[in-house]
Amino acid sequence: MAELKNVIGKQLPKMPKFYITRLVFDEKHLNLVGIKSGKVIGGITFRCFEKQGMTKFIEVVFCAIIAN
């Protein structure tokens, strides 16, 4: 998750680093990471909102991919 935090920070340079860190490592948020050749190349940080045990809404917080 630290590598994902670094990718997001690089792709969103105006976003405060403490905010990225707080949400990427928050237990209420989930992270889906893309890996190529053993390195994190991107990912999505999101949060699911449930009602009566069913997911009703998913909020995408960050979506970042390394551009080469």
Automatic annotation (TrEMBL):
Q: GO MF annotations for this entry?
A: histone H3 acetyltransferase activity
A Gene Ontology annotation in the biological process aspect, one of them, is: positive regulation of transcription by RNA polymerase II
Quick one: a GO cellular component term?
histone acetyltransferase complex
The organism's superkingdom is given as: Eukaryota
Gene3D superfamilies (alphabetical): 3.40.630.30
List, alphabetically, the InterPro entries matched. Answer: GCN5
Q: What is this protein called?
A: Uncharacterized protein
Organism, scientific name? Arcella intermedia
